[in-house]
Write a structure and sequence with these properties.
By secondary structure, the chain is α/β, with parallel strands linked by helices. The chain has a single domain, classed as P-loop containing nucleotide triphosphate hydrolases (Rossmann fold, 3-Layer(aba) Sandwich), CATH 3.40.50. 48% of the residues lie in helices and 14% in strands. The protein is built from 7 helices and 6 strands; from the N terminus they run E-H-E-H-H-E-H-E-H-H-E-H-E. Strands 2-3-1-4-5-6 form a 6-stranded parallel β-sheet. Strand 5, helix 7 and strand 6 form a beta-alpha-beta unit. The longest helix has 27 residues.
Length: 191
Amino acid sequence: MPVRAAFLVGFMASGKSSVGQELARRLNWDFVDLDLRIQTREGQTVAEIFRDQGESGFRLAEHAALLDLTEALDRDTVVALGGGAFAHSKNRELLRAWHSVFLETPLDELWKRCMEDSTERPLRKDPAEFARLYESRLPFYRQATVTVVTSGKDPVSLCAEIERTLQFRGETEGEGSSQTSPAHFGTGESQ
């Protein structure tokens, strides 16, 4: 059976890491947080990389880490991407053969979570810039294999929805890494 993977995409504070860890646990898959992988490779925090190399330097490190990860996948894995990773065409192209799941969260909820979280986020600035960045990335997030609306749902129910949608349990060998047609789950809209 081929290696399967699910890449969780979405804006900062959308729950990619917490949902990813729970999904990996439920599926008995490995879990990778791409930002943590970048920090290990670079020997610096994300904030330090932004400070020392700027966003362009961080994006180069991010792409290199994602390329290494996709080339080395040898076990079924859930990957939480950083908020900007899927907004770059080279990264989306790398992930074309894998399932990607957009965790869609309302902007006001994202801002609230960011303000309550102690995580240093280099691109979290004032509310207007935060909204502009979100709107600029939204068209790219919507290119994910599926969209799951997160409002009012805990990680367990989100994982159940992702499992149902992508039918991870019971995939046949021929279905392992094929991409399903995009759908906008939770609202009934097609992409």
